[in-house]
Amino acid sequence: MKISSRFTVAFHILALIKIEKNYALTSNQIAESVNTNPVVIRRLMGKLKKVGFIETSHGNSGVKLLKSLDEITLFDVYKAVEVVEQGRLFQIHEDTNIDCTVGANIQILLEVILKNAQDAMETVLKSVTLENIVNKILVNNG
Predict the structure, then answer these.
(1) What does the pLDDT read at residue 90?
(2) Cys-Cys link to 71, which of 6, 29, 67, 80 (CB 3.0-4.6 A)?
(3) Cα–Cα distance between 56 and 10 in angstroms, integer?
(4) What angle do CA 83, 88, 91 make, to 5 degrees?
């Protein structure tokens, strides 16, 4: 299972808004950078607006960040775009044969291990801010 690309596209949107802050970016222009349909961008921007990361206005007046980059972590974006339900990164088969030694035990054992794996991943995401990402983009483009 892959995490939805909404996660990385949302980062792309936020980074582009910051880097191109002197321009009034439209969803069409952002869509060109992401190489996707503007409808996809508008949907994601709606989610980012709902959590207070951006402000949008109709027409060509653009979009702007409402929070500084150091206040937005990868985890914040991960949650904002609803990539995965709480504690459900991994899907476990739930209809095992309880008369089988493996079937009777594997589910509970895997749940604990996979929950710990998700917690570890989320801890990493909490440690990286959008500012970290944008700074690396700027250095690489230098």
Answers:
(1) 81
(2) 67
(3) 14
(4) 110
CA nearest neighbour of 56 among 12, 24, 78, 15: 24
Q: How far is CA 65 from CA 71, 101, 112, in A?
A: 11, 54, 38
Residue 2 has pLDDT above 70, yes or no: no
Distance between CA atoms of residues 119 and 125, nearest Å? 10
Which pair of structure tokens corresponds to residue 34?
A: 């992401």
Radius of gyration of the chain, Cα coordinates, nearest whole angstrom: 19
Other Cβ atoms closer than 10 A to 81: 23
Q: What is the pLDDT of residues 32-58, one digit of tens each?
A: 999 999 999 999 999 999 999 999 877
Write the DSSP assignment of 34-50 as a string of letters.
HTS-HHHHHHHHHHHHH
Q: Spell out the residues 6+ positions from residue 75 whose beta carbon is closer than 8 angstroms to its own.
A: 122, 125, 126
31-35: list long-range contacts, CB under 8 Å, 24+ apart. 34/9
Average predicted confidence (pLDDT) for the chain: 89
